Amino acid sequence: xxxxxxxxxxIRSALKKGLENWFHETNPDILCLxxxxxxxxxxxxxxxxxxxxxxxxxxxxxxxxxxxxGVLTKIEPDAVNYGFDIEEFDVEGRVLxxxxxxxxxxxxxxxxxxxxxxxxxxKLRFYDAFLENSERWxxxxxxxxxxxxxNTCHKEIDIARPKxxxxxxxxxxxxxxxxxxxxxxGFVDSFRNLHPDTRxxxxxxxxxxxxxxxxxxxRLDYAFVxxxxxxxxxxxxxxxxxxxxxxCPISIELEPPFAPLPIKSASAEAEVQ
Length: 273
Description:
This protein is α+β, with helices and mostly antiparallel strands. It has a single domain (2-272), classed as 4-Layer Sandwich (Deoxyribonuclease I, Chain A), CATH 3.60.10.10. The protein is built from eight helices and 14 strands. Helix 5 links the parallel strand 7 (103-109) and strand 8 (143-149). The longest helix has 23 residues, at 117-139. The radius of gyration is 18 Å and the shape is globular.
């Protein structure tokens, strides 16, 4: 099962740069898109509802042309959630959560914290709401796979210029500390797990100063899985040569079946205590 994820930085712009051709050539089982920045009726039907795929879109409700995510999947989910059921986060159209019998797929465009202290606080609270949501699914016995633009580089190996950016949102100590916490809660960066020593591979480059040509980039896009799902991960890649956005696509390949997780019900926890 191949899952691709791409922050397209505006789907209408990406379509003009070959997104649809790339989609058909790649033929993913599931494609997750972030920063769509369009209403569904502004997307050509051939992409909004492609043949052979179930299509789900979650545009931003707070401001048109901002944020937004989409998922195209050959595998029909049991249910689809359009957020965490927390209004201040859900109105920005940052989450699509597909629920399958034994796993959950999150396609998320995590907030950027670079617009001041209030926005950084929003980003960190969003992170915590996401982690709490993920842990509830694990407790319910479902594996969790989360792809998307996390808007934070975790380690120095994930960014070309760590020293120059240590006071810039996306590489702040408090943001990186949350990534540490995420890992400590049992979630695995699949790319780094399979490529522990790979350097100079990034997923985002500034449009300024020829950054992409010089490969002065940031690894902001991830595919994280719960640690019990990691044995099913066959590949996890970053497709740096694919153009069309200031981000490039990432992909993860999994081989079912997935080992069942124990269900940790509230009543069972109470009995243990």
